[in-house]
TrEMBL record:
<feature type="compositionally biased region" description="Basic and acidic residues">
    <location>
        <begin position="74"/>
        <end position="83"/>
    </location>
</feature>
<feature type="region of interest" description="Disordered">
    <location>
        <begin position="35"/>
        <end position="59"/>
    </location>
</feature>
<protein>
    <submittedName>
        <fullName>Uncharacterized protein</fullName>
    </submittedName>
</protein>
<feature type="region of interest" description="Disordered">
    <location>
        <begin position="73"/>
        <end position="124"/>
    </location>
</feature>
<feature type="compositionally biased region" description="Pro residues">
    <location>
        <begin position="103"/>
        <end position="112"/>
    </location>
</feature>
């Protein structure tokens, strides 16, 4: 009887071992299935998020575009260029009309010079919007003491100009120079700025209508 008892106990332990092994296999199989299933579900979410972020501008870009649009609404439509003065002589009624009351007409015909620089190349819309940008930039920079590039960038950011459109921040003695890329709707506008406290200044400049940002230099 003792031998039979030992044999049954050994057999019972053997069965319990088989059951435990089978349960462990089932658990591992289930976990593996969940991991694979979870991974498959996560991939489309990541791709969708990536596609969405690349197709839609971020909040900063959207706010910057809205700012440009706001100033643009106060100016002529894109592409409009009114006739600009050209070199030539004014005679007769044209010369007389340009004189102030009581002023003696000059002996020689009046010869207005042609427009040069950005005024000759930018559209009426660009020239108009440039005035809005120049005024607000200068007013803000006049309040900046010790205008280092870091302080100037922070000030421009506070006005809505994002880093992607701020170029050439460079300290020059106690002042800092920079350019703003303000191209939109096929325009070529950029603004060249000088942060110098009360002597701060900003003026229109010309950039290519498309492609990387560069500033056209006057020949």
């Amino acid at each position: 009887m003792a031998d039979t008892h030992i044999s049954v106990s050994a057999f019972a332990r053997y069965r319990r071992g088989l059951v435990a092994a089978a349960l462990a296999a089932l658990v591992l199989t289930g976990c593996g299935g969940e991991a694979r299933g979870g991974g498959t579900q996560a991939e489309p979410d990541k791709r969708a998020s990536s596609l969405t972020s690349s197709a839609q501008p971020g909040p900063e870009q959207a706010a910057f575009a809205a700012m440009l649009s706001t100033f643009g609404k106060k100016c002529p439509e894109p592409g409009r260029v009114d006739p600009r003065p050209t070199a030539g002589k004014q005679t007769g009624s044209e010369a007389t009309a340009s004189l102030a009351p009581g002023e003696t007409p000059p002996a020689e015909p009046i010869e207005p010079g042609p427009l040069t620089g950005p005024a000759a190349e930018l559209s009426d819309r660009d020239l108009c919007t440039s005035g809005h940008h120049e005024q607000r930039v200068v007013e803000a920079l006049q309040e900046v003491a010790d205008p280092t590039p870091v302080k100037v960038r922070k000030t421009l950011n506070s006005l809505g100009y994002i880093d992607e459109h701020i170029h050439g921040l460079q300290q020059d003695g106690t002042t800092t120079r920079f350019h703003l890329d303000l191209r939109e709707s096929g325009g070529r506008l950029c603004v060249a700025g000088l942060a110098a406290g009360e002597e701060s200044d900003a003026s229109a400049c010309v950039a290519p209508a498309t492609g990387p940002f560069t500033v056209k230099t006057e020949e």
